[in-house]
Design brief:
Mean pLDDT: 93
Strand order of the largest sheet: 8-7-13-12-11-10-9
Oligomer: single chain
Shape: elongated
Distance between the termini: 23 Å
CATH superfamily of the largest domain: Aldolase class I
Helix content: 25-40%
CATH class of the largest domain: Alpha Beta
Structural class: alpha/beta
Radius of gyration: 23 Å
């Protein structure tokens, strides 16, 4: 199997923890009252093998969770590739064998999960490559605006593709939007707002969203650690970056809103330290073939 890893720290993808309940739920959702077809065909006692094979170039993701599904169903798992592995058409992702009925229980669920997650991983990597071509030190961050109920898969896929989470939820960052400031006196009172927040939470950085050069400069002068420019043009972002860094050379400049593979390089070139986007979460799934064969014994 000719594969290569896109990142040397695949263990970091393990930060996304899937509980045993998560794995059980995946099976339960597709098997609420048994497999009627397998039961009626009387497949009990028959043995088989399953191999998942890439149909297109892809970056594998959630193979570890698929392996756990297979084992839950009682299959014996052979070789499998780690999340973050780049595959070519014809490469195998997972091989397993066991009861034919067990294979049919997890076949579609395991394949669909890997296809969904690998699609996101591949699109993330597409964005990362486009941005890093212009700025090798830039970070590509995925927002928390992924489809509901798929947070763990979406975040794991994001990381497998070389991206990082922007926010895993509301609890882990201080990101002040214009909508927050509507209740605190607007951008004009931002200095005292930031001062108050820093007094309460000294160890955290504060990110301020801005929509114009004026708002960005107010944020920089008020002590923001980062300015997140929302849906600005490349030209405006470049001007904001230069003027904000003149105020604070260490300020982090974030480009957000409608970031995709066609403009990632432009924002990277315009001075962005971080690109924030949801674009990767709506990628078409990867294409995987399942090869299922009967075997006499093993």
């Amino acid at each position: 199997m000719d594969t290569c890893n896109i990142t040397p720290k695949l263990n970091e993808i393990g930060m996304i923890y899937f509980t045993e309940a998560d794995i059980d739920r995946l099976i339960e959702d597709d098997l609420p009252a048994g497999d009627m077809t397998t039961f009626l065909l009387d497949l009990a006692g028959k043995k088989g093998s399953i191999a998942l094979i890439a149909r297109n170039e892809m970056i594998a993701c959630c193979t570890e969770e698929a392996v756990r599904l297979y084992k839950k169903a009682g299959l014996e798992v052979g070789d499998f590739v780690a999340s973050g592995t780049r595959l070519q058409p014809g490469d195998r992702l997972i091989e397993a064998k066991g009861e034919a009925s067990a294979i049919h229980i997890i076949w579609r669920t395991g394949s669909a999960m890997i296809e969904f997650a690998s699609g996101i991983a591949g699109r993330t990597n597409q964005l990362v490559m486009a941005a890093k071509k212009e700025n090798p030190s830039i970070s590509v961050a995925g927002t928390r605006k992924h489809p509901p109920f798929v947070k763990k898969m979406a975040l794991k896929a994001l990381m497998a593709g070389g991206g990082v989470p922007h926010r895993t939820g509301l609890s882990d960052t201080i990101l002040i939007f214009r909508e927050h400031l509507l209740f605190t006196g607007g951008y004009e009172r931002l200095p005292e707002v930031i001062r108050s927040v820093k007094e309460k939470m000294k160890e955290r950085k504060i990110v301020i969203e801005a929509h114009s050069l004026k708002e960005a400069l107010i944020a920089a002068k008020s002590g923001a650690d980062a300015v997140q420019m929302d849906k600005s043009t490349q030209e405006i972002f470049s001007e904001c970056s230069g003027k904000c860094r003149a105020i604070n050379p260490n300020i982090c400049m974030i480009a957000a809103g409608a970031i995709n593979d066609s403009n990632a390089g432009m924002y990277a070139k315009a001075g962005a330290d971080v690109l924030v986007t949801s674009w990767m979460y709506f990628a078409p799934p990867a294409d995987i073939m399942a090869e299922i064969l009967p075997i006499d014994e093993y």
